[in-house]
Amino acid sequence: MTTPAPPVPPTGPVEPVVSVEPALLARSVPPVLSVRGLGVRFRMRGGRHIAAVTDAGFDLAAGECLALVGESGCGKSVLASALLGLLPGNAQTTGSAVLDGIDLLAADERTLARTVRGRRVGLVPQSPAAHLTPVRTVRAQLEETVRELTGTRGREPHRAAEAAADRAAFPAGHLDRYPHELSGGLAQRAATALALIGDAPLLLADEPTTGLDRDLVDRTADELRRHADEGRALLLITHDLAAAERIADRVAVMYAGRIVELTDAQRFFGERGPRHPYARGLLDALPERAFTPIPGLPPELGELPAGCAFAPRCPRATDLCATTPPFTDGLACHHPRESTDESPEESPEERSDERPDESAEETVRA
Amino acid sequence: MLELRSITAGYERRAPVVRDASLTLAPGTSLGLLGPSGCGKSTLARVAALLHRPDAGTVTVDGQRATGWRHRAPRAQRTAIGVVFQQPRLSADPRLRLSELIAEPLRATGRRSDLTAHVGELARTVGLTGELLGRRPHEVSDGQLQRACLARALVLRPRWLVCDEMTAMLDASTTAALVAVVEEYRREHGAGLLAVGHDRVLLERWCDRTVRWTEITGAG
Fold first, then answer.
1. Do A71 and B171 touch (CB under 8 A)?
2. How large is the greatest C-alpha to C-alpha distance in chain B, in angstroms?
3. Is residue A360 pLDDT above 70, yes or no?
4. Do B142 and A293 lie within an 8 Å CB cutoff?
5. A195 and A316: one domain?
6. Angle B33-B39-B41 (CA atoms, 0-180°, nearest 5)?
7. Fold of B2-93+157-216
8. Is A9 domain-assigned?
9. Does the N terminus or the C terminus of chain A have fewer Cβ atoms within 10 A?
10. Domain that includes residue A180, residue range
11. B21 three-class SS
């Protein structure tokens, strides 16, 4: 597909933690992870192809949390598997995902196994109960991971395991328990402790809150945020918009394998709201908002309609939508809702202010 | 009326997970039952759906006291209650195509004659069409499978619905869509609903009335 663009060059002063549209400003710190034109296709029987991810691109900096949201089956988890090099054999990838100088898509299994998984990317799994080994205690699993990742022997793994448990707020008194003896929340922390051992600069959390009750979702999300605040980059893959709102700095909305909008979380969940009709629809489906579903079902990834994949479900679709909208200004849509639709109080000057930044981003992407 | 009176239930006699729980549901009304995970609300939902025999207490469905549970429940009582579970993967036979999955209650009760027309209509109601109905569970997403499971719960036109964390695994849009289907069915058939969950915002939006677990159990 496209040739990988270089990471965004460090320019400008250090940006404040909460700034206007940080997503659209050139970053002052080189990103931990830089994804460009990432595509994943599965080759199926009979020469069919399923385009699970198409042309995904984003940067992720240390201390930052990017939430990747979308309906189930939109390709979120495939993207995560691609970053870990865990795609099945019939997958073909394009583009690049550069982490610490290593292109995760081009790296061989040996590199991935010895230098990436656990060391550069820590995975917080969807279902901790299934991720942990049922026949061994949490302590045994932590110590094994320490030995494997650091090569240390003797007393050192013992100490490091307890330190990792402590960092994930896993109580030391429960270290000698087996996974089935833990509550859902504690099992989640045990799995997080495993992900933290290698001190990876990138944490990948794949649906970490599915099926948990609200208190536990909040606690798990807050703990992930704390790990990001300690200087890790956090990619939170979720369909739980409440969890994303709680901790994300930026939100990427994925639909039918494409990132259709990438925007600042404050804008996304705030007054102005997202611009893509699909992102609007997702938010309007929340019980605390309109509670109205988006009509229809997501398309099959094997039979994507030509042009914008959301057009068949979109209230704003026109003939123009038969052509694929390019991803510019953090958005892929022919008929976006501009914030002026809903917030007339916003001055046009503000909007024209942000344009140069956005086009700067665009040139980086192109 | 669907009445649960002083229900004590669990999996070990000495350590019941539900103690002395009571609730009453009038026809056509909906009740949301809120509780944290592990409190025993799913067990109570199973008792209400006649799927788990309580150690003590009585369940009365439309004035008739339940005496048998699971397959021992009289068919008229059993089929008066439709159930949707939290995890569609665990509650769908992996060998059945979605159309067969939806039709299974009709087959099981010997009402094959209703089959084709009724299943097709219901499938459309829950948003499943054409080619999807010919697939097996591993070929569809969680959301699509849960849509089929909801259609299965409605296929015998139950007077009562028990939804145990029906939407916990689903995204916001699918959640809103399934809740809309349930509400449409209830408007049309006047069915009563017991919705069990931990999401206060959702249940308060969805149901006429919500109660907390502690309000209906002996402890509260």
1. yes
2. 51
3. no
4. no
5. no
6. 40
7. Rossmann fold (3.40.50)
8. no
9. C
10. 129-199
11. strand
Q: Do residues A133 and A259 share a domain?
A: no
Interface confidence (ipTM) of the complex? 0.86
Q: Which residues of B touch A287 (CB under 8 A)?
A: 175-176, 199, 201-202, 204-206
pLDDT at A252 over 90: yes
| Tokens representing residue B115 in the block | 């089959």
* Whether A323 and A283 share a structural domain: yes
Residues A135 and A271 in one domain: no
Which residues in A113-123 are b (16+ Cβ under 10 Å) and which e?
eeebbbbbbbb
Task: Please indicate if any CB of chain B lies within 8 Å of the CB of A294.
Answer: yes
Task: Identify whether residues A256 and A327 lie together within a single domain.
Answer: yes
Does residue A116 share a domain with residue A244?
Answer: yes
- Residue among A365, A208, A345 nearest A271 (CA): A345
Both structure tokens of A100: 């610490």
Domain end point (choices A142, A174, A199): A199
Count CA atoms closer than 13 A to B68's CA, side-chain side. Answer: 9
The answer to whether residues A108 and A237 belong to one domain is: yes
Sheet with B56-61, edge to edge strand ranges: B18-25, B2-9, B56-61, B64-65
| Model confidence, pTM | 0.81
Cβ neighbours of residue A242 closer than 8 Å, sequence gap 6 or more: A214, A217, A286
Residue range A231-248: mean pLDDT, rounded? 94
Mean predicted confidence (pLDDT) in A11-30? 49
Determine contact: A32 vs chain B, CB below 8 A.
no
The reported pLDDT for the residue numbered A19 is 43
DSSP character string of A289-345: TT--PPSS-PPPTTSPPSS-TTGGG-TT--GGGGSPPP-BTTB--SSPPPHHHH-TT
For residue A16, is it within any domain? no
Q: What is the pLDDT averaged over residues A180-207?
A: 88
Contact call for A72 and B172, based on CB within 8 A: no
Q: Is residue A18 part of a domain?
A: no
- Helices B115-125 and B172-189, interaxial angle, to 10°? 130
Same domain, A257 and A311: yes
Q: Which residue matches tokens 């296709």?
A: A41
Please state the domain count of chain A. Answer: 2
Question: Which of A42, A69, A71 to probe by mutation at the B interface, max B CB count within 10 Å?
Answer: A71
For residue A296, the chain B residues in CB contact (below 8 A) are: 127
| pLDDT score at A167 | 85
Give yes or no for residue B112 having a pLDDT over 80: no
Beta bridge partners of A331: A261, A328
Cβ of B173 within 8 Å of Cβ of A293? The answer is yes
Name the one residue in this structure whose structure tokens are 């893959």: A237
Is residue A4 in some structural domain?
no
- Which CATH number fits the domain that encloses residue A47? 3.40.50.300
Residue A57 pLDDT > 80: yes
User: Are residues A361 and A26 in contact, defined by beta-carbon separation less than 8 angstroms?
Assistant: yes
**What residues pair up with B2 in beta bridges, in sequence order?**
B25, B61
